[in-house]
Amino acid sequence: MIITTTQQAFNLAAVHLMTQKATAFGEHISLCAYRGANGTKCAVGCLIPDEEYSKGFEENTAKELLLHYGKELPSINQLDQDFLTDLQNIHDRESVDDWYACLIVLAERYNLDTTEFKSEIE
């Protein structure tokens, strides 16, 4: 599935984070990961289909990911890099308990509708 809008990406990632309720850490390192232990995925990682994912993506920021691997990521390479970075920062830097509030602020910053997100997690 190719994600073409920021709204689409927000809905998918926000519901994913609030359902997973856990940070995705690498299996052998204590850094946040696009694909983590026990099947976890970060906010950007959940937007990347398994058939596009590569372990080489790990330890790259969202911007670096699109810069170096954009052609290999048709599912997300049309998305706003700043939005993806902000989404990644919520997962990587904020407490799980703060994710909901941070996602609401992110939605406001990018003029996104939170109706679908809220209805799916309540």
Mind sketching the topology for me?
Elements lengths: L5 H15 L41 H8 L11 H13 L5 H11 L5 H7 L1
Helix pairs in contact: 1-4, 1-5, 3-4
Structure description:
- This protein has helices spanning 6-20, 62-69, 81-93, 99-109, 115-121.
- The two termini are 25 Å apart.
- It has one domain (6-121).
- Helix 1 packs parallel to helix 5 (115-121).
- With 122 residues, it is mainly alpha-helical.
Short descriptors:
mainly alpha, single chain, globular
Short description:
By secondary structure, this protein is mainly alpha-helical. Helices cover 44% and strands 0% of the residues. The model has no long low-confidence stretch (mean pLDDT 93).
User: What is the string of helix and strand elements?
Assistant: HHHHH
Q: What's the total helix number?
A: 5
Structural class: mainly alpha
Spatial extent as radius of gyration:
13 Å
Portion of residues in helices?
40-55%
Give the DSSP E fraction (strand runs of 2 or more residues): under 5%
Mean pLDDT figure: 93
| N→C terminal distance | 25 Å
Low-confidence stretches: none
Number of domains: 1
For the largest beta-sheet, the strand count, sense and barrel status come to: none
